[in-house]
Amino acid sequence: MGSEEQAMKKLIGDTAAVVTDALVGMEAALPQLRVDHENRVVLRATPKDAGKVALVSGGGSGHEPLHGGYVGYGMLDAACAGEVFTSPTPDQVLAATSAVDRGAGVLHIVKNYTGDVMNFEMAAELAEAEVASVLVHDDVAVEDSLYTAGRRGVGLTVLLEKIVGAAAEEGAPLDEVVRIAEAVSAQGRSMGMALTSCTVPAAGKPTFDLPDDEMEIGIGIHGEPGRRRVKVAPAPEIAEMLVDPILHDFDAAGGPVIAMLNGMGGSPLLELYLMYGEVAKLLEKAGVRVARTLVGDYITSLDMAGCSLTLLRADDEMLRLWDAPVETPGLRWGR
Amino acid sequence: MGSEEQAMKKLIGDTAAVVTDALVGMEAALPQLRVDHENRVVLRATPKDAGKVALVSGGGSGHEPLHGGYVGYGMLDAACAGEVFTSPTPDQVLAATSAVDRGAGVLHIVKNYTGDVMNFEMAAELAEAEVASVLVHDDVAVEDSLYTAGRRGVGLTVLLEKIVGAAAEEGAPLDEVVRIAEAVSAQGRSMGMALTSCTVPAAGKPTFDLPDDEMEIGIGIHGEPGRRRVKVAPAPEIAEMLVDPILHDFDAAGGPVIAMLNGMGGSPLLELYLMYGEVAKLLEKAGVRVARTLVGDYITSLDMAGCSLTLLRADDEMLRLWDAPVETPGLRWGR
Amino acid sequence: MAFDIAALGRWVALFRDRVSDEQERLTALDSAIGDADHGANMARGTAAAVAKLESATPTTVGEFGKAVGMALVSTVGGASGPLYGTFFLRFGASGGDGAELDGPALAAALRAGLEGVVSRGKAEPGDKTMIDAMTPAVDAFEAGASDLVSAARSAARAARAGSDATEPLVARKGRASYLGERSAGHLDPGSVSTALLFEALAAAAEEVSA
Amino acid sequence: MAFDIAALGRWVALFRDRVSDEQERLTALDSAIGDADHGANMARGTAAAVAKLESATPTTVGEFGKAVGMALVSTVGGASGPLYGTFFLRFGASGGDGAELDGPALAAALRAGLEGVVSRGKAEPGDKTMIDAMTPAVDAFEAGASDLVSAARSAARAARAGSDATEPLVARKGRASYLGERSAGHLDPGSVSTALLFEALAAAAEEVSA
Ligand SMILES: Nc1ncnc2c1ncn2[C@@H]1O[C@H](COP(=O)(O)OP(=O)(O)O)[C@@H](O)[C@H]1O
Ligand SMILES: Nc1ncnc2c1ncn2[C@@H]1O[C@H](COP(=O)(O)OP(=O)(O)O)[C@@H](O)[C@H]1O
Ligand SMILES: [Mg+2]
Ligand SMILES: [Mg+2]
Ligand SMILES: [Mg+2]
Ligand SMILES: [Mg+2]
């Protein structure tokens, strides 16, 4: 280890082996999971029953508990762990797809990043199993345009993996699973902000410099700068900067929503609860009825301080699937 | 808000109202909880059955999910939220104790800090309910001496609240509950380390300065410096600095242990898994058999980067109570 | 000359002012060897005590002590809440139903307060706590109790000297004890707030005599 | 003069060397408008490609392209893995069973590679991607394909100029597009690694001709 890595404030050994080493610890800590270390794929120790649709997701590492922490009953069957903030390779996705196929087809859940899309696409082209895929692109900070890469996939991924995972666990056939996945993808929106940057182990220093009195609005989940930089503001104002763009983008009043106030990794839970309190006030004022809530670190950017808000307009079917039992390291209820 | 608070990298409004505001958000997010805002006590929305022993804990805020996040079926009945890193007052503890007493007595779970001990003591003196209390003092970084304040209560608190909570939920009488609590308290040890300090909102800047290439070994959970400051080291060496003092303090080989690799709030889950992998190797080498594992942020110091290790020598009864259903925001399984 | 209820109230108000002026310093000291909250704790508590005195309008020393002590106990938390709270509760109990305290009575009340702190916290002199400022302060006050102003002034000097003397000590009580040898080289924050308490007493005595 | 398998191998090795020298710069560029991994991605991928060529010992251009392309696809991930991987897979397919490439054949293989990148990534010139360096480079190579060395040199110059020209652009593809207007004022990192690819080609051509 060079002197530069020595000085990094991280619980790591060899910077080049962070993901590999973390998967070793994950497998040791979680007997319900199995890790294909060669391909860096996290799998259920006990595969689901034959004849059920399997769910594969994955992406760059550094977003934990996403995706490996959502492998288990009622959610994913496999998660491919790329390098930090780098999408997995087609080999990994292919290995995951073959490992979990139970004869009823495999759904790829792909966050909309050029790299993720292309790597999953190449794997799907090579797979023997019947593969369908759904794209998550919920980030309202990004312009929704045909001429660009389109919106990023962020917080909605967690909600989608839960709801679609429940449908697959119930035995819904592939076309049903795809229909529900598309519906969730269409009905969810997110917006995020950062108080600090984060440090990618291989880079060894924060991705961007942020003065003590400024913050970034409209960030993704890769430690990248946001759409604009503004002065640090108190929580009620930050809540507006998250809620307003989402409600501007779609009409959430009326029907019930599932709300997730997600921490980016470096903000204490105390602050996340406080933020949710501010968000809840604004949603109530706007006539949005929150039926289910998650507050905590569910899809992170390493040690970035900040948070994101995701709202999903949920119909009865989605709410029922949301409430269905789930048993993963990151999300668990009902068993 | 003054310009100083403006510049703090925190999701807060009024620095003096952080705990109050967070409790508002917590109640909004978690319908299964009820908050007595005047006394800042987190309660179950549905109290447990009459005739069962109730568990009250509490302490300074800033350790979330501890303690409020452990209120619920199979764990605590009430948690008193003090100011950040400041123990609650006797009034709060008294209000909690009266609120949850179901006629079978109340157990106070107190972390061994002068302030916590005195405030809980004053409340117990004033309470009408039958009150017993158990002291958690598991931190091997602190000398165990009759002439000092003794060891701090840290990570073991989480394990104790879970195990003792299960016993109370099963209907064990107060003396039984106390016996189990004492047994857990006697059989657990912890050791912690920090890569960074943390920022108390009211202080507005990090509690201590830590150069880029140094870390603190033997920290508690209040952002305080540790027993010694050393050069930043790679994860395998850090693992030794946590495991060795614990195994030196008591003999963990032979029987099964429950292991918790806890994040202090600012370290990504990726790193915590990686650290657990290193710890697991050392434990295996030392002949320690790990029967159950927790890896994640369970008892934190706001945004401090770092981790702690807790080992509990668990007999069959403790393992059975550990596996019993629990339904709290911070720990949930079996229902 | 004696301290009546108004003068006792001035003492608490002046204590609040000093704590508020020194809040950042108290927190900085507590950052070095504690948990960075002593300034906020004492500011919150003394403000609540002043407010409580305004609303409760005590007429006896006993009521005064109860108002201040309960306000501190109920709002501070931490170690200093029960300790300063107990100090004032016992102070009040010593003064009882009287409406004022002359020199010897004030000395007795301060002694009772100190004993309350010792029995609640079980610290001994030299453990690097507020006791190290409070003990010499009460001793000094007793020695000169016949002249209120000069007794209070020498108590304030003794408290400050006792506080200064905590710097080289290795803490055996309170949070600083967790640091072991590293606690040496820093003032104990609670001893500094105790110095403020006695400096406020001296200032109040000067006002009374003026 | 022509590029045989050994010369193609030198090209990849020289590309690896340049990427490794410039790794931090590539990451710094990606930090500004991406996610701070382009340096690490390309260093990992090109090292794997060189290792693969050593173990696979290809004997045809097709085998060469497959070895390099698959190594990149399998080890890089991200956007650049499939893109550079596709570039070499199509490059190899164009060269086919031949054991070397003369100027025009090399031009055709480069063109095939570029077309692969375009069809995989669907970016257009001006979107602020590696396409903006690769397109002018391939054009320049074709224009001078009769003299390998000077064609490669002018391709390298064109790639670098194309990369430099990405600075003022607002990105429409890749991660930088999420920044909107804020992406202007920074070089596209992928275009810089493409400039390195063509500079390595020119250096390899000089070695071949020496
Ligand atoms: N056992 C004790 N007896 C007397 N004073 C004590 C004792 N423990 C702590 N103190 C005093 O309390 C001060 C700390 O108060 P404060 O910071 O408000 O509470 P906490 O330590 O709970 O954060 C210490 O500086 C010390 O003077
Ligand atoms: N659709 C695309 N077509 C061509 N090149 C692209 C496209 N999207 C991104 N790129 C290139 O990929 C580069 C980023 O590569 P890299 O950082 O390794 O992957 P990622 O963006 O997944 O982190 C960009 O600088 C750009 O040149
Ligand atoms: Mg990337
Ligand atoms: Mg405190
Ligand atoms: Mg303190
Ligand atoms: Mg990148």
TrEMBL record, chains A, B:
Listed GO CC annotations: cytosol
PROSITE patterns for this protein: DHAK
Keywords, sorted A to Z: Glycerol metabolism, Kinase, Transferase
A single GO BP: glycerol catabolic process
Top-level EC class: transferase
Pathway: Polyol metabolism; glycerol degradation
Annotated catalysed reactions: dihydroxyacetone + phosphoenolpyruvate = dihydroxyacetone phosphate + pyruvate
E.C. designation(s): 2.7.1.121
InterPro entries in alphabetical order: DhaK_1 (IPR012736), DhaK_dom (IPR004006), Dihydroxyacetone_Kinase (IPR050861)
DhaK domain segment(s): 14-333
UniProt cross-references to Pfam families, sorted A to Z: Dak1 (PF02733)
Molecular function (Gene Ontology), one example: phosphoenolpyruvate-glycerone phosphotransferase activity
Subunit structure as annotated in this protein's UniProt entry: Homodimer. The dihydroxyacetone kinase complex is composed of a homodimer of DhaM, a homodimer of DhaK and the subunit DhaL.
Name of the molecule in the record: phosphoenolpyruvate--glycerone phosphotransferase
Organism: Microbacterium barkeri
Source species taxonomy: Bacteria, Bacillati, Actinomycetota, Actinomycetes, Micrococcales
Gene from which the chain derives: dhaK
TrEMBL record, chains C, D:
Keyword NADP: no
Entry superkingdom: Bacteria
Residue ranges annotated for the DhaL domain, each copy included: 6-203
Record-level Gene Ontology MF annotations: glycerone kinase activity
Keyword terms, alphabetized: Kinase, Transferase
Cellular-component GO terms for this entry: cytosol
Keyword 4Fe-4S: no
GO terms under biological process: glycerol catabolic process
NCBIfam families per record: dha_L_ycgS
Official protein name in the record: Dihydroxyacetone kinase subunit L
Organism field: Microbacterium barkeri
Lineage: Bacteria, Bacillati, Actinomycetota, Actinomycetes, Micrococcales
